Amino acid sequence: MKGKIGFIDVGGGLRGVYAAGVLDFCMDQGLSFDLGIGVSAGSANLASYAAAQPRRNLRFYTEYALRKEYMGLESFLLKRSFIDLDYFYGTLSNSGGESPLDYPALLKNPMDMIVVATDAETGCCRYFSKDDIQQDCYDIFKASSAIPFVCKPYRVNGIAYYDGALSDPVPVQKAFDMGCEKVVLILTLPEDTVRQPDKDKRLAARIRKKYPLAAKKLEGKANLYNQSVSLARQYAAQGKLLIVAPDSTCGATTLKRNRDALLQLYQKGYRDGEKIPAFLSERS
After folding, report:
1. 227-240: string of b/e by CB count within 10 Å (b at 16+)?
2. Of 89, 194, 226, 269, which shows the fewest CB atoms inside 10 Å?
3. 3-class DSSP assignment, residue 252
4. Beta-strand pair 180-186/241-244
5. Which residue intervals of 114-208 are DSSP H helices?
């Protein structure tokens, strides 16, 4: 019996447009997976892939993200979140929204779907699934994408959550533990990037008083990311994993709204998706 094939989208704020390009290539080519794991913005890409809606996330990154409703000082003052997650994953995505998520199609897709978030109180990782969403209730994506201090933690069933990258930024081992034979890992930074903790430590200081355990996880996020990419390389050397990563970010960053840079990075992702069919054809 063939083992499962999975993909992981690690997110990265607006850099997630790269992964959106990779997954649009997969949809255009009819490539399917048995398991999809999304972290932070990667969870949004995962949702559109599971719902078979190519180019949907491209609109979010290159059109909707440029609107003042998406993020800004006004949102921070009114809602204590610089990024308005309710606008992205509610107003725009609900059935009556401008770009609704095709929830029935997502539900019908046989692919297992995992969304990673971090419990703000305990710092522990939480892996959500399809069972945790319903029509027009996409709170798990908001929770997974709640960058500490930039956003207030998002509550799901009364529990406050921060970005999944705090506790499992590159969930390679999770994919193999769930029975995957091979995994496609989509990074949104060049593969050889060694992340530094400076920025994370500054943000951790802002949340430490109220959420000390989440702050501790945030301080160690860069090191955990580096360790996880190193593990991914080990699996890649064994032929069990393919790393798809940009050779540059084209000037795109987590929160920088530069439409030209985002379009370039999307196109780079779409081209890099061409590496995947050969990898999948080697499936035993």
Report:
1. ebbeebeebbeeeb
2. 194
3. coil
4. parallel
5. 139-144, 172-177, 198-207
What is the per-residue pLDDT across 163-210, written as a single tens digit (0 to 9) for each?
999 999 999 999 999 999 999 999 999 999 999 999 999 999 999 999
Tokens of 80: 């204590």
| Residue 78 CB neighbour total at 10 angstroms | 9
> Which structure tokens are listed for 165?
């990258």
Nearest Cα to 219, choosing from 233, 202, 236, 232?
A: 202
Other C-beta atoms lying within 10 Å of the C-beta of residue 66? 13
DSSP-derived letter for residue 160 is: E
**β-strands 154-156, 159-163 pairing:** antiparallel
CA distance 154 to 99: 22
- Residue labelled with tokens 């054809």: 281
CA distance 280 to 35: 14
Compute the Cα dihedral for 279, 18, 97, 141 and give only its sign: positive
Tokens at residue 108, please?
């019908």
DSSP assignment of 19-87 equals HHHHHHHHHHTT---SEEEEETHHHHHHHHHHTT-TTHHHHHHHTGGGSTTTBSHHHHHHHS-SB-HHI
Q: How confident is the model at residue 284 (pLDDT cuts 50, 70, 90)?
A: very low
Tokens standing for residue 122: 């305990």
CA dist 103 and 5 (Å) reads 23
Contact criterion met (CB below 8 Å) for 140 and 156 = yes
Q: Residue 236 is encoded by which pair of tokens?
A: 């890649």
Model pLDDT for residues 41-70, shown as the tens digit of each residue: 999 999 999 999 999 999 999 999 999 888
The CA-CA-CA angle for residues 225, 228, 233, to 5°, reads 125
- d(C-alpha 49, C-alpha 42), whole Å: 10
Tell me if residue 94 falls in helix, strand or coil.
coil
Joined tokens for residue 283 = 């499936």
